[in-house]
Amino acid sequence: xxxxxxxxxxxxxxxxxxxxxxxxxxxxxxxxxxxxxxxxxxxxxxxxxxxxxxxxxxxxxxxxxxxxxxxxxxxxxxxxxxxxxxxxxxxxxxxxxxxxxxxxxxxxxxxxxxxxxxxxxxxxxxxxxxxxxxxxxxxxxxxxxxxxxxxxxxxxxxxxxxxxxxxxxxxxxxxxxxxxxxxxxxxxxxxxxxxxxxxxxxxxxxxxxxxxxxxxxxxxxxxxxxxxxxxxxxxxxxxxxxxxxxxxxxxxxxxxxxxxxxxxxxxxxxxxxxxxxxxxxxxxxxxxxxxxxxxxxxxxxxxxxxxxxxxxxxxxxxxxxxxxxxxxxxxxxxxxxxxxxxxxxxxxxxxxxxxxxxxxxxxxxxxxxxxxxxxxxxxxxxxxxxxxxxxxxxxxxxxxxxxxxxxxxxxxxxxxxxxxxxxxxxxxxxxxxxxxxxxxxxxxxxxxxxxxxxxxxxxxxxxxxxxxxxxxxxxxxxxxxxxxxxxxxxxxxxxxxx
Length: 498
Hints:
Elements: H1 6-16, E1 21-24, E2 29-31, H2 32-48, E3 56-60, H3 66-76, E4 80-83, H4 90-100, E5 102-107, H5 112-121, E6 127-128, E7 150-155, E8 165-169, H6 170-184, E9 191-194, H7 201-213, E10 216-219, H8 226-235, E11 240-243, H9 245-252, E12 267-270, H10 277-286, E13 291-296, E14 305-307, E15 321-322, E16 327-331, E17 344-349, E18 356-357, H11 361-367, E19 368-370, E20 377-387, E21 393-398, E22 403-405, E23 408-410, H12 412-420, E24 425-435, E25 439-448, H13 456-466, E26 475-478, H14 492-497
Parallel strand pairs: 1-10, 3-4, 3-5, 5-6, 9-10, 11-12, 12-13, 25-26
Antiparallel strand pairs: 1-2, 7-8, 8-18, 13-14, 14-15, 16-17, 17-20, 19-20, 20-21, 22-23, 24-25
Helix pairs in contact: 1-2, 1-7, 2-3, 4-5, 6-7, 9-10
């Protein structure tokens, strides 16, 4: 597997196929040659602003053509980019700019007033609101990034606490991109449609893998208009569609989509959260010509494992095997390797493991543990898993989400799978609410499918039939839709707060 840098990926694509479309966005399309020229121009402009090697540049842009240009421009300057959700609020932006020590901020004109106000609060940080303002400049003096250079500081979504800045090098990112390209069998003929924001790690790697494979990335700004997504699938001859459960639940709810011909679509990927078994079956029926990859990862290492599509029927709830070039195992008590089907913490070893959390040595020590060699660190994910006799991994739950009721442990996902098996349930989430008698009471939050009426007592009866008594929800709370973070993940903290 090649270990060239992310910047070298773009240079190679521009040299081989300069006229081929690298990015297709609503505002304009950019070829590989144009993307490379933009990276050179932006790098020179940033250097004129005083941005040097190792400096951090925040990027606050939606899924428009300028976003990939900004990312590669920052990397070409040997700086590190910090992608931030374009819906971020001023006070949070100011906090993150101060925390990461941003040397500059890139945004668009629409967000400029808010970004400039936040940048002033954080210390008069230069704001670039129009990348076109950077004119042509000689980039010959700029030395290419090294694979050990800091490439990005990516903040976690912070759905269960304060966001942490995950630091990754060019080598970290390059390794992950190459590994994903390998197991998805991506090639230059691929055209990937992403509705996921490039500020989100999962969305970001759609760009990096496409450039690595010299494929084309088609960008759409979210799922506000699901019908447009379907039109793009057809019009742009899309071959790959990455999504999170929310994306697929919206799409499979569209009438007539299963009857539409999508002859080019060959694979789907799901990450961010697990698709319930019932949803997997519906997604496969709707997109019958495409292979579905269930995947698991964390910002701290991007991707850990994937389930080969041919294993879906035998292991619909598994997230698969480690990605190429990595190791992952379940650790039991005292760090020993857990027995088959024993629940423990997932550990990850490989070139994709982060360097640590920005300005957080304690958090870094908690998550990065001593490895096989004195210089090596392995990632303790904090997530609970089990592994079957053939080595396939199963997500049980996040350690922080585990419910302790009546002295017994309850994994929310186990209860959620039962709820999802009930006809008419569109979304289900189980949380532990504080309770003086039980410690934590199991509460089920459910959103029904459009036009369906559900009965809480009936849902509890189904759980009683399928689960031990301490796992049966004490309450069932109905919602029109469950709350989500800006990245589309279920917001359990919001459910608890509500």
